[in-house]
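Final paragraph of the annual report: two paired records, presented back to back.
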Amino acid sequence: MYYFIEAMTEDDIPYVQVIERQSFTTPWSANTYRREIRDLQHCRYVIARASPTPPGQLPRRPTPTPPRPFGVLSQLVSIFLPESPAHAPSSLPPDPTPIVGYGGIWLTVDDAHITTIAVDPTYRGQGVGELLLNALIDHAYDLGAHQITLEVRISNTGAQRLYLKYGFQPGGTRPRYYTDNSEDALIMWTEGINTAEFKARLAELRRQLVVRLQRQADG
């Protein structure tokens, strides 16, 4: 199975919302997504798709911005992984290249803020979340950001480990940030993403991700 990144379109929103409801207790409305993906000056939203064939063999979908997965320090264009069962909710038409994850980023002055990132539970643990994070980092560069910030639940140690690996550091908490259970949010941010140190880390982590995914495919 191949995994690849595309810009989110309005047609993708119903499928994205299915994953969102499986991942979060306070999902966004469809109108919120429409507003966000139309604001290309400040926002970027992406999806990860699974496909049994390489992305280059698929018909190109129209996108609001040119598809540029991993435009900075590009090493990943498509990734081969062991096949997982494709599925879609019965109320939505099946898709031969189902959406298996999504993410978004905002630009505020010169800080890029990761607003959301989630992976279909069926596909978790296979590197899709890390693939999405890399795509959002590239969009942070495209937007001219100097650093990247995010909030993550205090209890979500798995996500925190991924962010720490990519150079995000804890910078405080937002008490009772999550409205469903009043859980605190951990604020994390990177140092300057244009530094040689950050770019070297990013290049090495992408190399490691390629190796990991290739091993999964071979296994």
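The closing record of the year follows.
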Amino acid sequence: MIKMIVTDLDETLLKTDKTISQYTIDIIKKVRNQGIKFIFATARGSSTRNLIPYELFDGYVLMNGAKAYIDNRLIYDKTIPANIFIPFLQNLSDNGLKVAAEINDMHYANFNVKEKWNYIDNFIITDYRGVAGSADKLYGIIESPYQIDLINSILPDELYLNFSRDSLAMIMHKEGKKINGVLEIARKFNISKNYIIAFGDDINDREMLLNCGVSVAMGNSIEDIKDITDYICDINDNDGVAKWLEENILG
């Protein structure tokens, strides 16, 4: 009785080179032809549009859960007000951390973002004075263990800290989580979480995997994720998501 599938993108649906295979595209279309909704949930923002065709999906969750959409219509918004994130980032910056706020697809950072991610051109180097608007997400580059303790020691009550395997600290609104965006999309489609299959590979997929009816870890997942899921599929570079769906849903 599966009614919806949600998948992470990087190291999950996408290959390591950030491409999606024609085989995977064909499987997604076949799954949707059976009346099953197909969505993605990612830490990415607008850069996602450069990687996948949005018309393949019934909905999507961006910025680790800060925003969720159906048919390109915003249905869930949990962003971080400027009066909360500006003093927080200024404090971290004063203590030597490389940090940034992403606002409407613009990265406001105290470092050259392009040196870390060469595909990002839309950034402004700033000390955060005069930055306006709510941030979709905040992030920092962790270069030493003490920086984690520093972030936690001054983290505002409204925010939470998450990590990815590439030493990236992501700071979000407490209600801005992948699972919240996924469940809001499911609610709009009148689908219970028990009828959702979730695919993921990293720490920021944990709650999503734990709170859907069926959870599948990638073969390339970190061990902590493999330990909590119902199934483990092939690695992302071998079209693990599509293979699992073909064998278990279409088969």
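Residues 44 and 204 are 12 Å apart (CA to CA). This concludes the annual technical report; the extension proposal builds directly on these records.
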